[in-house]
């Protein structure tokens, strides 16, 4: 695409192309960085959402105390009273990256605050990711495709959603690491260089440090290796690309504390070891095939296969028995829910409760990758002509990532780079065809052979050629190392020249047929540009409007202009100014990270949902009546309870809407909490038809306490209904703070009563209880008639 | 920008901070700085009580209390000024009043107690609803029948008027030296008044003087038509309450009990051969007032210390399997000074959701309690807890938070003996590979 077509000398043309590519890449980097700054411009330079606050806090600790203290950090302010070993349970890549950035800036006397560095880490790394996408696609389909893919990736909405300024999360650096690891793998595959193989292992290590999604790499690459072997594309380059990665990569991965022995113990990694064995067997077979005569080889094959099968079966049986003996079959819950999308909703409510673990809807594909969804099939077709090792990898990558994105909406993020690469290839090929057609039509047929020697085709053809040549080479009798290398180079040169000529001859014939009419080409180019323009418009809109909200500050537009809801920070500031340093704050786990990071108070549970029982305890307390809840909270030394309530301003992701998950998670551990008790005829409601259990639950009471005083009738703007129980008093909790828009409400546990009251007048209390029982009986009867009439 | 960075750094990470949280509400009426010269408001139905109960009052005055006598209906009564209580204790010897003068009311009395002040309340057979309600709020239920009195046909005090068995000679005391003093009360206590019952689930209220098994509570003037609601040892004559903030309350069903007449009178319990020249009332009332006004059984604990063995400073965090030393000081108020409290049953818990370590503390007889133990092999946020609840004594409930961390990466053993075969294997493989490479590459 960027290649200048008219040329005197190829060298000059290449130089010019490289310089142009360099500046285009620079601009892509600037674009990737600047499109993510909408959140800073529209709001302010703050950390977004939930997890980023934890990462921010960890980064602060790292910068203040150094790497070793970070590694050994035991955090006593979360998961009270269990605490959390941060160093051993966190993926340190992001934190170390930001820490290193901060250190570099400071060594250059640029005094940035930790927060600033954290806010801008994600945009910086999305520029890197674009460049990595360029490198990867260039390896697959040449520079033009690389640049197109880089442009597309720099502004794909799916990736923007996780990497806007302030979104300081693992994915911010992990996507770069993912693409870069893939690039190095393909690079090794294309060159057969041990240098790149080592770099690949190091890049893999960085990925393991950064994100749990590294298992995608360690499963995808073995899949590709297996595919190459099965389709007869085994070559020493494949061996060099794969074997060092498994050995070094596994060794390095086990150095990361959070992975540790998981790198060899869990099923996620078994595929790589299996393929590791297979590739050695295949390598041995090829070697033996080379040194034996065909007859002898046949005999050897029958011998080895019969013995090998027995051994394999025995080993497999042992392995299966080992794996089957563990309850989860050696797979972690999150990974299992990838293979069986219904697994989580069946067994692990805590995973299912997270919205980003839900399967995506169709519109979200259009929202997140937009026109790329239509370009991907074209890209896949382009990858098949001609099919190389690199392009099979690209195809495999897109196919698997489409599946994973269909399981979990969060993994759309893994799909996005693949879609960009594919679309980049498709667009580049299309432009290639159209521009060539135009040129052919304009300049006439005489100059067409020169066209065919243009850079794109050349490099692509070279990939293919090099591969076939080397695989042939491997079958030859093996000379000593040095000799071999020289010989190889010679052969390579000679052969590649001849091949290119041969290939160009073939492609010339093909491309003569592919030449399109001038008008059609021009129109098609215009349409493609239009498509691209539409994509750009959508991406900018998505970056500006859809994905830039920090969720810690909310805004609405009304007739009076912009209205800002800053209730969360108001509440956290209240906590940090008005409570003791060691006070414990209970809330649903979503707000745990923010409470520790912003209010600096100890929390009971937080977003690192590692202890289901502890979360279930809080869920049970929230679902229990006041007294039982008070006892649970008191046993956990809780002083304050924080609830998020959206009914006043219409903020839909509040605790009442999350309440059923609390009931489910609580009920999963404490069976006396039953979900049907909170549902009226299977419907979740908070109006007068709500069940008594629901109306008496702590969450209901804390959310709607004094709510009727706001408008006189207690109209909930999220559920669009009047609440069921309007006037009630709290006996064990007292309201201490409610934010301006009622979005965060803080309650304090009352101390136990100073005195225990005696019984009141006996005769009255007896009759009272009888009346209560009567009421209850009547109520139950009424309910039964209700359900009967309804059914 | 730089300043902001510094600020965020300083704000962050107070994980090493540990604070003391002493649980009991530190609002004792009992002010250790001013143990004497304490003000007590005495509300009377009738100022003549001042002389008829003068022995009791003078015993209080002789112990350093300033008594402020007022009629219950006195409009100038006020216990609080500018949010400060004017009195340390309240004696309600006004059973028949149905309201107080001035600003004091039921809520006022309860607030007075809830802010840590002490109360002595005496009812009588004509006790008003106000007095009954105060008692109920403190956990004491007087007989519902307003005209009922306690009658005991076997445990009565022998007197001139034959057939009047409402003057009871009660000798069923609580067995507690703290409440009733170390000197046993020999003579029975004369009691004439109404009985009350306690909720057995109420852990704060104690029956100090209970009726005998033959007692019952009814109106002596009317005929007994239905079984009386209060009978036997279920009837409590005098009860004490120690509220959760350690405010102390005494509730008696008889005002006469404190009178000079019964203080001086001799007593002969029916069926008992022994005749006492002087009733036990004076000793009983005086001893119990000592308890109520914190002259006895008032403990204070503090100076909670813990450190690693061999060190002196309190560490911010412990490591699992550390050896540590723990100490706490406990003193008791003797009425004039703080004296060391000596007991062998004070325990410390090393607590995280449940006590991982529970150890009885040894004492040096000078108020210092100490022990040492090994931190369990569990990490988390632990608390040192001293929970001391003994009959009659103030509740001690102290806790101090201290996190326990796991080993650091460099605190494990460098080489494990059992792993030597593995070390051998890996090194021999490395050497073997090296030799193999040389042989393979250069052996041609």
Any overview of this molecule?
The complex is a heterodimer of chains A (791) and B (444). Chain A has 791 residues and is mainly alpha-helical. Chain A is 66% helix and 5% strand. In chain A, strands 6-5-7-11-10 form a five-stranded mixed sheet, sandwiched between helices. In chain A, β10 and β11 form a beta hairpin. In chain A, α1 (10-34) runs antiparallel to α7 and α28 packs across α29 (592-599). Chain A is globular. Mean pLDDT of chain A is 82; it is low at 1-5, 446-488 and 762-791. In chain B, α3 (54-62) crosses α8 (281-292). Chain B has helices at residues 2-11, 49-52, 54-62, 106-114, 129-137, 177-180, 260-264, 281-292, 420-442, and strands spanning 20-22, 38-44, 65-71, 80-81, 84-85, 89-93, 118-122, 140-142, 149-152, 168-170, 172-173, 189-191, 196-198, 205-210, 215-218, 236-242, 248-252, 267-268, 275-276, 299-308, 318-319, 323-333, 338-340, 347-352, 354-360, 362-363, 368-374, 380-388, 396-405. Chain B has three domains: 25-292, Rossmann fold (3-Layer(aba) Sandwich), CATH 3.40.50; 299-405, Immunoglobulin-like (Sandwich), CATH 2.60.40.1930; 414-444. The N and C termini of chain B lie far apart (68 Å). Mean pLDDT of chain B is 85; it is low at 1-29. The longest helix of chain B has 23 residues, at 420-442.
Looking at this protein, list some descriptive labels.
heterodimer; A: 791 residues; mainly alpha; 5-stranded mixed sheet; two-stranded antiparallel ribbon; 36 helices; 11 strands; 66% helix; 5% strand; disordered N terminus; disordered C terminus; B: 444 residues; alpha+beta; Rossmann fold; Immunoglobulin-like; 3 domains; 8-stranded mixed sheet; 6-stranded mixed sheet; 29 strands; 19% helix; elongated
Structural class of chain A: mainly alpha
- What gross morphology of chain B would you assign? elongated
Largest sheet of chain A: 5 strands, mixed
Q: What percent of the residues of chain B sit in helical stretches (DSSP H or I)?
A: 10-25%
User: Measured on Cα atoms, how large is the radius of gyration of chain B?
Assistant: 32 Å
Helical content class of chain A: 55-70%
Number of helical regions of chain A: 36
Largest sheet of chain B, in brief, is: 8 strands, mixed
Q: Remind me, CATH topology of the largest domain in chain B?
A: Rossmann fold
Give the total of beta strands of chain B: 29
